[in-house]
Prior knowledge:
By secondary structure, the protein is mainly alpha-helical.
Amino acid sequence: MSQTTFDEDDLFGEAAEEMRGEVESHLADARASLPAADAVWEIESDNALGALNSLKSALDTGDAAEHLRAAKKQYVMGERADAFEDADDLEDEIDDLEDLIEDIQDAHEDVGDLAGTLPEIRSELQDAAGGDETDE
């Protein structure tokens, strides 16, 4: 074995490349876990509650938050170790993905709240109308 194989600078450079690769891989996994754009836009249902429940399901981020967390952990370790020569692109991608996941999770919660409220409102409207409305 040659001595250069164990040169600390070479090993550090390899470790930094691997760490960056892990961050990029976790970010790709997070993006892949997000719902498809068409899934949240094109929903088929016979009624509002069905549409809301479909939308709520479509807004499920799956494992995206876990993958993002793993990416952030690797990124923070690399940043603190000063392992990245230029990590602005990683930081921007992490921030953008974090904002997107939060927006989707907020929408998921809002749709869930509305789906939970809608049957009660319908029932109250039926009561207010004297029960004349029928189920369709």
